[in-house]
Amino acid sequence: MIPLPAQKPICLACVNQTTTLVCGSGSSISKCENTKPCSKDSVCISDFCRTADQTCKTPTCTDNYVNQDETDIGCGGRICGIKCSLNKTCRKDGDCTTGFCRLNDKTCQISTCKDNYWNADETDVDCGGSICSTKCSIDKSCETSSDCQTGFCRSNDKTCQTPSCSDEFRNQDETDIDCGGSICSTQCIDNETCSQNSDCTSGYCRLTDQTCRTASCTDGFQNQDETDVDCGGLICTATCALTKYCGRNSDCTSGFCRGTDKTCQVSGCSDGFRNQDETDIDCGGSTCGVKCSLTKTCGKDADCHSGFCRPTDKTCQTATCFDLLRNQDESDVDCGGTACTAKCANGLSCGKNADCTSAFCRTTDKSCQTPSCSDGYKNQDETDTDCGGSVCSARCLDTKGCGKDADCQNGFCRPTDKTCRSVIIKKEINMEKKDSLILSFDVFNSLRNDISTLTVYFRKLIRKEVKHLYSISKYDYMFFTDADSFIRSGSLTRLIDEVEYRHVGAACGIVMVDFYNHFGGFWNLYQNFQYLYGQVLRRSFENIFRRITCLPGCITMIQVDEKFSHVTSDYAKMPRQSQLIQTTAQRLGTDRRLVYLIQYHQIKTCLVESAVCYTKPPHSLYRFVTQRRRWRSNAFFNSLLGVCSSRIHPIIRLSLFLDMARIALPRSTNPMLDPIGFLETKLHWNPT
């Protein structure tokens, strides 16, 4: 048998071949072409064996067979582009017209938000996307923050997470990463995004680019606490012009922020707004002259028509005397003043005594107090501070007010001005004794019937001042002394005894020099020698006849009676209209003049050796010479009158004559011929 040559392998599945060949090794079998019989798809070149006639065919999308990459007949897959309808077989969501290929049975189904599958535009199973309303929980997949229940889709892994103010993502209502918004307390720094001023640390969110910036009063934006652009508020000093926005009056240059539209306007007293310094709308304050009516706001009583601004609520009210407030002209709450009749109790305020129940308003603190006689105030029925009246026992001093003589310590209330006054008369030099005698005899004893009227002049001058001195009915004795002398104890009693029991008109005592403070001075010794000579020798001799020719002004007692009034009457008159006589006899020698008149009226006088007065002598030669010139000149002149008067006692006239002769006859005024006489003349007598 001849072997056959090798041939191309022939597919055993092919039918109607004349020869069936089996591949040599069986590793490769030829597929059948179209129209060739087949038993399955894999034997055909087209990979499609039509079952109806068992022939190889080219597959199409309309051959009613599942072929190519179709998932069901004529649909699904990539080649046909036709999506499969409901319940058709599928491999993925893109194969289905519903967009959902159910995984458990690989069939097209209608997707829902509760099918436990991640379908439609869900970002995770049954949540997220635009179709399902269910938000995804934490760690679920998401695309945007709106897909998440927490409102935050973390961008780095696209999962839902809980937002925080420190997660380094811009979430919640943050205007920038972890800052701004209403949730996070952290504010954004400059250049970070913001939506309003409160989002920024600087307090200023620039609207043009929605970024935080450092605010200023000249940045051209309304920021900080400005009420308008760069004006108003507490930070910027610039005030806003008219029509600019404002929050209060101080924001405006005009001083008036209109409340209806919060804009700066020109203020007025009839603009229907409370502005300027008004306390209420168009009333009160110092600018507008209109008073506020009842219940309107006020600052003080002057703002109200009623004159009363109630302090509790600062409203105008009608004042009363029982409103528990201090108003009207009350000095304290509901008391005092002229409007209310109620008086204020102790401790309450007052303006005058009439405001107080106690009738005493203390001026230092203007409070009512209980008056007393030592409170330093004039109250009760006192005529002056703590004196006078019927309540206080203290009497008033000079110049104090009084109502009657009994109110005064000196017993005299001057009727012209109702003040306590002591009678003070300014006297000429060396006229003390004459004036005192006139006052004693004429004025002070004006009520005595046994004393005649002396001088009309003095009565007119001071009678009205002393006519109310009734506490002493009369004066019986008058004692004379000097301011530089002091009297030995018991001397006054001895003088009065001598005047009373010897029936004399006047008595004098012994004068001695006060050596206590001036011992050893020449002029002290010389003066004391003169006193001893004049008193021990001359006055002791004159005392025998009760005709003392010198009654010293430092210790003399005179009896005030009718016979002595004649002496006083002559004493009050000037001797003659001669300057020499008036000066020598009257002005320089009041003591000698009085003695001469006593001798002239033949009134007895005496010397009381037990009554002693100590006086201070001159301290220098100048004072000694001045004193002696005055003493000796008037002594010589009055001695001359005594010698020439026939009414003088003869023995006394002789004594006076001898004394004059001793001084005048042997002396000369020529300093060259008789220097001793010249000095004595100058020292003792100078009639010019």
From TrEMBL:
Its EC number is 2.4.1.16. GO terms for cellular component: plasma membrane. It comes from the Eukaryota. One of its GO terms (molecular function) is chitin synthase activity. The keyword Transcription regulation does not apply. InterPro entries: Chitin_synth (IPR004835), Nucleotide-diphossugar_trans (IPR029044). Keywords: Cell membrane, Glycoprotein, Glycosyltransferase, Membrane, Transferase, Transmembrane, Transmembrane helix. It is found in: Cell membrane. It is a multi-pass membrane protein. SUPFAM superfamilies: Nucleotide-diphospho-sugar transferases. Its main location: membrane. GO terms for biological process: chitin biosynthetic process. PANTHER family: CHITIN SYNTHASE (PTHR22914:SF13). This is chitin synthase. The lineage of its organism: Eukaryota, Metazoa, Spiralia, Gnathifera, Rotifera.
